[in-house]
């Protein structure tokens, strides 16, 4: 049994959501502002027949999407995968879906058991802004040099001090994070920054994306990314990129928990995966 709750059953969920429809993940003081956490807790509480409190792998800001978010909660009775997934989805708006549900041991924790988080940042470089996916990617009229962006990204690999890429209001006790993978690739007009780390600081991915876009536009050399990192000064980096292009696509856990592994989203990019 978990020390955090009197309930004996712990359930993990995979969650997908359109961040443009919500004011971020975290439940706000005002019930007027829709958040992913508030809508999901309300639906699950109805199925559980008691209040449910969710813990997520990584809180996302307003406008940021999730295709591989993982959460857990404790409940008095395990209703079964079908009830949590299909029943939950029947109570949720179309912009929010439960992808899978699984009973997990009490020592599983969506945040603290996670070994890494992976994000995709999606850019569309075209003279004309797209009408259909406008809220689901970042548009630029400049043709970006992805080779320069990828080269710049390699300076950010490893465990380093990412003060230059953290938000002013970031509450993390340490600026050190370990980026294990950073790849920039092009798929026709879509440019994808694929980045994985043990954890991320507030706005870290968006600040890195903004800096890489400056380099891709030719206004800075790839080595500038290293200079920005070493400066440990947020004012030295580029402006924060839009949240609309950012997706939390997967969270990696120890194999012992045997969580489901789904294709990496968003769905419109899967043909290029």
Can you walk through the features of this model?
The protein has five helices and ten strands. It is of the alpha+beta class and 273 residues long. It folds into two domains: 9-113, Pseudouridine synthase I, catalytic domain, N-terminal subdomain (Alpha-Beta Plaits), CATH 3.30.70; 116-248, Pseudouridine synthase I, catalytic domain, C-terminal subdomain (Alpha-Beta Plaits, 2-Layer Sandwich), CATH 3.30.70.660. A hairpin with an 8-residue loop joins β2 (55-56) and β3 (65-75). The longest helix has 13 residues, at 36-48. The radius of gyration is 19 Å and the shape is globular. It starts with 8 loop residues before the first strand and ends in a 21-residue tail after the last strand.
> Which oligomeric form is depicted?
single chain
Structural class call reads alpha+beta
Radius of gyration: 19 Å
Largest sheet: 10 strands, mixed
- Total individual domains: 2
* N→C terminal distance: 40 Å
